[in-house]
Sequence to fold (168 residues):
Amino acid sequence: MRSFIITALMAATALPVAAQAQSAGELRHDRREIQEQRRDLDRAYRSGDPDRIRAEHRDLRDARQEYREDIADRNRRFGRDDWRGWRDRNARLYAAGDWRAPFRYTAFRPGVRIAPNYYGTRYVIVDPWRYHLPPVRFGQTWVRHYNDVVLVDTRRGYVVDVIRGFYR
Fold:
């Protein structure tokens, strides 16, 4: 019975790794497919046949679209609430501690423009993956504001997202 439980636990921990490897393999396959389609398009240009060029353009566009969809599927695994279960299992990581800013608390909402001192380097969360926060786009950063976490567009100073009560 004990060996059955241990085997089941090992299988349960191995499955997520296999799913990630499959996703990486899919992306590698898609990149190879795009390269092949580019080569085919170059050959079509050399042949000078307009119908073949049009068909190869369409195939290349489809291959690029499939690659973008696979990347979006991979990134979807970081759901908005992916951090909740992680926080419950790693309470010390999310401990609020004695953290205070030199300004008072403000309940920000998405779309509001804030001053740069709210998202200065002192407040930036440099390792958001550690807290299982969703990945950010270029020009955005997660910052801590008391016990909340705020996603800020640093180029324009707008609040993109707010997670209230992130730290306990």
